């Protein structure tokens, strides 16, 4: 989560612990951009050179993170800076049409109309896109947060052969799966996958 209150870096770490979590640090471009979407400005991440000037360490739950995405000219230690602010979380989403959401170099849209799976495929094509199929935990969670209280179709089905599920992202086979416990169960001849609360079911 991103707090509404401004903190120093040390206070931000303490506040995260008080909430039962830790100060985050991105470990990939996708996570970096996702956090950028949550933050309307600059937020702290768990990177610093307090132990040795110029030797930056980034940790997630005390595990060293190798990923870096410094803005040009950073780190420069201006004003004795010892903490990495997320200047790198700022990104340009101007390429996405209005009401679309940017993540991982792609634009996502949730339609307001309830559709069948086949109609959803067609509607996405009419909008100039494709029905999404998550390829990672991060993308899966991003899509889930766009529809926190409902199901949304994804491009996974076993229409060709019962029980053999194929997931495609623009006709590229996707290996990632995140089935809810007991799914897919083919109840009532269910052949298409949907996502809710970051787990999948067949419908």
Describe the structure.
The protein is an alpha+beta fold and 203 residues long. It has two domains: 9-89, Mannose-Binding Protein A, Chain A; 101-202, Mannose-Binding Protein A, Chain A (Roll), CATH 3.10.100. The chain has four helices and eleven strands, in the order ααββββββααβββββ. It has helices spanning 9-18, 29-38, 117-126, 137-146, and strands at residues 44-48, 57-60, 63-64, 83-85, 101-103, 106-108, 152-157, 166-169, 172-173, 192-196, 199-202. Strand 2 (57-60) and strand 3 (63-64) form a beta hairpin. The radius of gyration is 20 Å and the shape is elongated. The model is unreliable at 82-94 (pLDDT under 50).
> In the CATH classification, which architecture of the largest domain applies?
Roll
Overall average pLDDT: 77
Count of strand segments: 11
How many angstroms does the end-to-end distance come to? 31 Å
Give me the strand/helix succession: HHEEEEEEHHEEEEE
CATH class of the largest domain reads Alpha Beta
Note the beta-strand portion.
15-25%
């Amino acid at each position: 989560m991103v707090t509404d209150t401004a903190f120093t870096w040390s206070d931000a770490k303490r506040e995260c612990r008080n909430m039962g979590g830790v100060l985050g640090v991105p470990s990939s471009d996708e996570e970096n951009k996702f956090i950028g979407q949550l933050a309307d400005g600059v937020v702290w991440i768990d990177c610093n050179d307090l132990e040795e000037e110029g030797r930056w360490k980034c940790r997630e739950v005390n595990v060293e993170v190798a990923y870096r995405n410094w803005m040009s000219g950073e780190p420069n230690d201006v004003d004795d800076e010892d903490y990495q602010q997320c200047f790198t979380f700022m990104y340009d989403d101007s390429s996405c049409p209005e009401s679309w959401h940017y993540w991982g170099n792609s634009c996502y849209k949730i339609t307001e109309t309830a559709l069948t799976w086949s109609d959803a495929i067609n509607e996405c094509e009419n909008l100039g896109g494709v029905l999404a199929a998550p390829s990672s935990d991060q993308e899966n969670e991003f899509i889930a947060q766009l529809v926190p209280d409902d199901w949304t179709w994804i491009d996974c089905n076993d229409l060709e052969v019962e029980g053999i599920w194929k997931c495609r992202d623009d006709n590229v086979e996707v290996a990632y799966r995140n089935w809810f416990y007991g799914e897919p169960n083919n109840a009532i001849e269910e052949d298409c996958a949907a996502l809710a609360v970051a787990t999948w079911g067949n419908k």
